[in-house]
Amino acid sequence: MRLIRLLLATALTFSVVPAHADSKDVARLTQLLENSKTLSARFSQLSLDGSGTQLQETAGDMILQRPGQFYWHTDAPQEQLMVSDGKKVSLWDPDLQQVTIKNLDQRLTQTPALLLSGDVSKIGQSFDITAKEAGGVIDFVLKPKTKDSLFDSLRLSFRNGLINDMQLIDSVGQRTNILFTGVKANETVAANKFQFQVPKGADVIQE
Known about the structure:
Structural class: mainly beta
Helix content: 10-25%
CATH superfamily: Lipoprotein localisation LolA/LolB/LppX
Number of strands: 12
Order of helices and strands: HHEEEEEEHHEEEEEE
CATH architecture: Clam
Number of domains: 1
Shape: globular
Radius of gyration: 16 Å
Largest sheet: 12 strands, mixed
Number of helices: 4
Strand order of the largest sheet: 7-8-9-10-11-1-2-3-4-5-6-12
């Protein structure tokens, strides 16, 4: 649930310490991301506070498609669904029978899901990026160049060319770790997967 809230939340403000990016690291990350026009996977998510105490653990399924379309479903008992058609994002909370709809913020620093599904051709303009490789695993650490970002740092890890896991750290040291399993790239996705139909009787909040 926290990841969905994070993806949809208002940006936090904090100080960013810039890193020195290597243009080769930027180019490599861009290529890895752009190689996957669609992605589907099972995910497990763990949220920890600044001291390392577990706050929440959830799991679910995600499907992504460029440009900017995604389907992110968290399993019960904390079920939620976030769907983007590339222009609007809908967050459905079945427990509250409520859907929140807002414009998709295209800035990569505002919506981490866009790093996997959006236009990353100019990712080096938004982040300082450094990489470390060991065997078939390559880790990229991204630090936003602006202060109006949702996260202080983001790590993306790829195994054999596919996304394996990611970690977001916010301004107070809270961490969100997401592990992807059963990752499949460039498979055909039905167009209606990214179209959310408001359930009958649901409360609708437009932001």
